[in-house]
């Protein structure tokens, strides 16, 4: 059995391929990249053979072959098989003290051979809002299984922790709340974007639980009163159904979509926006809130899940499915410059609570607690 002096200076952490196989960009891979980049006195490795992920493209702690996204998607099944084999081989070597899977597939459990693992639960959306997902989605059983088997669990908000306890019956002492952070974002002017002069910004996916339809219905009314205001979206291109919806509401010429943008462009979109609106019914944390704060962008949030916990009094809130309430919130930001500036100032202060350096530091503490609890090894120091 290793003593704390033998383990602590070179705590060995292994993360697997899962999220890095799925995401080119995305919150989960960003989370792992940021914390692994900032861990001190830790030897960390991401085990993956092939990836289209941009964060680890040249990352020394994730040696792999980078594949063009289009090619990767064509041969996704083959790359998944090779990536899994790579992770299994690395796990079997046993050259790590703690395993931290990047997603919820439990394939690795039988290969751990007496090693502890820490599970990060990013949200409980499927469990809280099952009506928006297929009942056959394996994430339900997989996440519960891993939550029960994990040595310790990281929840990214108090709201998520409470949902884990309520739904899974997990003892609260097993769960550490560790907030996300925010990396510096630099807004870079790009005249090719052809941004409208005044716009409301919506960032991310537009799946049903994101409650995007409430924003669309509110914007339809706002555009009649303020024809100078537009709606800017990031993420995937418009679907046929969305195009039809916008045409029916006579707002097609006021909706602009920017896909596959980098962080610098995203920062510019925030900085030039009249406000950022996040109407989601449920989130585990809400990184876009911090992104908006860091770019002096007023924030309008649904009064749901973790949003008040993360944003505090630095945002304007509305009841999630109340279109009239959202219209009032948007109108207030548009018309009250003093209030707008007040929210921006509060956002700047709120931002100080969330850093990736602290996330990494607290995560290492959780690793050490897990090892100590699993093998009774005294790793925690004062």
List keywords for this structure.
alpha/beta; Rossmann fold; six-stranded parallel beta sheet; 14 strands; disordered N terminus
Rounded mean pLDDT is: 94
The top level CATH class name of the largest domain: Alpha Beta
**Total number of beta strands:** 14
Largest sheet, spatial ordering of strands: 11-10-9-12-13-14
Structural class: alpha/beta
Question: Largest beta sheet, briefly?
Answer: 6 strands, parallel
Instruction: From the 3D structure, determine the CATH topology of the largest domain.
Output: Rossmann fold
Beta-strand content bin: 5-15%
What CATH architecture label of the largest domain applies? 3-Layer(aba) Sandwich
Number of helices: 16
How would the global form be characterised?
globular
Poorly predicted spans: 1-8
CATH superfamily of the largest domain: Glycogen Phosphorylase B
Distance between the termini: 22 Å
Describe what you observe in this structure.
With 382 residues, this protein is an alpha/beta fold. The chain has 2 domains: 4-181 and 355-375, Rossmann fold (3-Layer(aba) Sandwich), CATH 3.40.50; 191-351, 3-Layer(aba) Sandwich (Rossmann fold). The protein contains 16 helices and 14 strands. It has helices spanning 4-7, 18-22, 27-38, 69-74, 76-93, 125-128, 139-149, 158-168, 212-225, 240-248, 263-272, 287-294, 307-311, 323-335, 337-351, 356-375, and strands at 11-15, 42-46, 50-51, 65-66, 98-99, 118-121, 152-155, 175-177, 199-202, 230-234, 255-258, 275-278, 299-302, 316-318. A 6-stranded parallel sheet has the order 11-10-9-12-13-14, sandwiched between helices. A 3-stranded parallel sheet has the order 2-1-5, covered by helices on one side. Helix 8 links the parallel strand 7 (152-155) and strand 8. Helix 12 crosses helix 15 (337-351). It is globular. The two termini are 22 Å apart.
């Amino acid at each position: 059995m290793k003593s704390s002096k033998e383990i602590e200076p070179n705590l060995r952490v292994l993360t697997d391929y899962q999220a890095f196989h799925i995401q080119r960009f995305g919150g989960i891979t960003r989370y792992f990249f940021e914390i692994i980049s900032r861990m001190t006195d830790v030897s960390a490795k991401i085990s993956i053979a092939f990836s289209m992920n941009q964060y680890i493209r040249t990352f020394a702690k994730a040696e792999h072959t980078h594949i063009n996204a289009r090619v990767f998607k064509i041969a996704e099944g083959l790359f998944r098989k090779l990536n899994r084999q790579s992770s299994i081989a690395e796990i079997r070597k046993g050259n790590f003290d703690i395993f931290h899977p990047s997603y919820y597939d439990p394939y690795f459990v039988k290969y751990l051979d007496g090693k502890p693992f820490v599970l990060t639960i990013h949200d409980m959306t499927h469990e809280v809002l099952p009506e928006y997902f297929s009942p056959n989605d394996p994430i339900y059983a997989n996440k519960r299984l891993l939550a029960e088997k994990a040595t310790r669990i990281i929840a990214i908000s108090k709201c998520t922790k409470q949902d884990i306890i309520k739904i899974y019956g997990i003892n609260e002492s097993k769960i550490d709340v560790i907030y996300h952070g925010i990396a510096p974002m630099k807004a870079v002017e790009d005249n090719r974007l052809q941004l409208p002069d005044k716009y409301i910004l919506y960032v991310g996916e537009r799946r049903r639980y994101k409650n995007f339809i409430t924003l669309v219905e509110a914007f339809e009314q706002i555009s009649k009163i303020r024809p100078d205001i537009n709606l800017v979206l990031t993420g995937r291109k418009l679907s046929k159904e969305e195009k039809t919806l916008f045409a029916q509401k006579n707002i097609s010429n006021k909706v602009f979509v920017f896909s596959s943008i980098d962080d610098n462009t995203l920062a510019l979109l925030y900085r030039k926006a009249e406000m950022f609106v996040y109407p989601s019914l449920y989130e585990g944390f809400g990184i876009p809130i911090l992104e908006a704060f860091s770019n002096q962008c007023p924030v309008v949030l649904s009064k749901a899940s973790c949003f008040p916990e993360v944003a505090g009094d630095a945002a304007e809130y509305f009841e999630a499915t109340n279109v009239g309430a959202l219209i009032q919130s948007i109108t207030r930001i548009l018309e009250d410059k003093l209030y707008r500036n007040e929210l921006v100032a509060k956002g700047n202060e709120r931002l100080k609570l969330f850093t990736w350096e602290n996330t990494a530091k607290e995560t290492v503490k959780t690793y050490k607690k897990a090892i100590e609890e699993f093998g009774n090894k005294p790793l925690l120091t004062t």
